Amino acid sequence: MGETRTTALDEWKSHWTLVLASSVGFSFTSFMAPAIGLFMGPLGQEFHWSRTQLSAGLGVAGLLGVVISPFFGALLDRLGSRRLALPGLVAVSLGVAAFSLTSGSFAQWIGLWVFWGVACMFVHSTTWTTAVSSMFSAGRGLALGVTLSGTALAQVIVPPLTNWLIETQGWRQAFTYLGFGWGGLAFVLSFFFLYDARDRHRLAMDGAASAGTKKPPLPGLTIRQAWRSTELWRIAISTFLILTITIGVLIHQFPILVAAGETRDRAAWLASLFGVAGIVGKLVTGTLIDRLHARVIGGITLASTAVAYPLMMPQFSSPLLIVIAMMISGYAAGTKIHLCGYLTTRYAGLRNFGSVFGFMAGLIALSSSVGPLLAGASFDHFGNYVPFLLAGAAISLFCGLLIFSLPAYPDWSLDEAEVRALPEPV
Questions:
Q1: 16-196+220-420: CATH architecture
Q2: What is the dihedral of CA 204, 140, 278, 52, to 10 degrees?
Q3: Residue 271 in contact with residue 252, Cβ under 8 Å?
Q4: What separation, in Å, do the N-terminal and C-terminal C-alpha atoms of the chain show?
Q5: What's the pLDDT tens digit per position in 191-208?
Q6: 153: closest CA among 265, 55, 301, 278?
Q7: Alpha carbons 279 and 298: distance in angstroms, whole number
Q8: What torsion do the CA atoms of 68, 172, 175, 267 make, to the nearest 10 degrees?
Q9: Could you tell me if residue 410 is left (phi over 0), alpha (psi between -120 and 50 degrees) or otherwise beta?
Q10: DSSP secondary structure letters along 4-61
């Protein structure tokens, strides 16, 4: 008896609206990273804060993520994406708008970041990748690529938009418009289209309980097995190290470009080019890893920034080299969380994906905390970002080798097919 396999095209026809909602939702919850660099100038001038102080808030929010991401990952396994995303989007919108109330008190500044950081845990990358990974298998790489292009979309739109809002409306109004405008769109799309396999599985479990039968658990590793997986540890270590550098560069990207001789306007557009390259990176990588093993694509991509970071140094910078550096760096940056999410689903399965990726998200949050502080400390201590960029080149090579060393995927395909055959949520 032949088995009918669901194709990538079938998955896209059924669930493209889920990918759209997830991509826009993720773009909103990740836009503060590229935006905050544009606020550093006005806030620093008005309140006389150093780069390290301006970076500290995002660092504190990242440290919160280290502690509570695994908790929210486990909660995601129980409740599903929808029940966390909708209230989370409302809270993040309020949190972004609340930055307009900054008064010059450093304690208040940190408090605002604490609120924003906790709110973001409801709508972290885990929320969106869980939803999409649970409904795609044959086309999972590209679906995750489009979803996580949300952060690259933010990197394209945010620099020129935020710069324009700051210059025309002031930095306070810029926070308000970004919070309620972007957040409102994300909420509407998620309200109508955000459902994942856990919604289906919950319905099936309810129906099975009333019928006196049992439904199997979602496919994948137990928590104990995940802790012992050397493959998952390689993914975790490479993700933490590479994102420490990547997020540090991203947060300080605007001042790095200005230090390299670019004007504010040109730096804003170059930062936007970084985002365009990130979108290309996610889509191309997503397409390739649906056809080739991700260790090959990922290893080459992560190692490529060893070339890009030195080109951002003032000693080597020129208009052409800066453009090349931004394209390479943006392309690679667009793949890093994407590769982590994809590889985690392949090696851990769906059974405890929220908990496993919640741990990965904790490491991502830690890198979000450490990276900007290290970049800021490099500038404050040395007067430039050169040591940080040199360290980034070496780390890129090491992380590329870690990903390249991964073995073949486990096979969860039969179990996943059963999950996708469960009834639609009502």
A1: Up-down Bundle (1.20)
A2: 50
A3: no
A4: 32
A5: 999 987 766 555 555 554
A6: 278
A7: 16
A8: -110
A9: beta
A10: PPPPHHHHHHHHHHHHHHHHHHHHHHTTHHHHHHHHHHHHHHHH---HHHHHHHHHHH
Question: What is the total residue count of the chain?
Answer: 426
pLDDT digits (tens, 9 = 90+) for 139-177: 888 888 888 778 777 877 888 888 899 989 999 999 999
Q: Partners of 220 in the beta sheet?
A: 349
Q: Which two tokens stand for residue 273?
A: 């080019």
Residue type, 159: P
Nearest Cα residue to 236 out of 362, 401, 73: 362
Q: What is the dihedral of CA 239, 277, 24, 371, to 10 degrees?
A: 40
Q: Is 293 in contact with 410 (CB distance < 8 Å)?
A: no
**CA quadruple 191, 194, 197, 199: dihedral, nearest 10:** 0
Cα angle 22, 366, 101 (rounded to 5 degrees) comes to 70
Name the phi and psi angles at 97, rounded to 5. Answer: -60, -30
Instruction: Give Cα 47 distance to the centre of its chain.
Output: 30
Run of H or E residues at 312? none
Per the listing, tokens 């055959």 go with: 421
- pLDDT band, very low/low/confident/very high, at 268 (cuts 50, 70, 90): confident
DSSP, collapsed to helix, strand or coil, labels residue 349 as strand
Question: In angstroms, rounded to a whole number, what is the distance separating the alpha carbons of residues 153 and 145?
Answer: 12
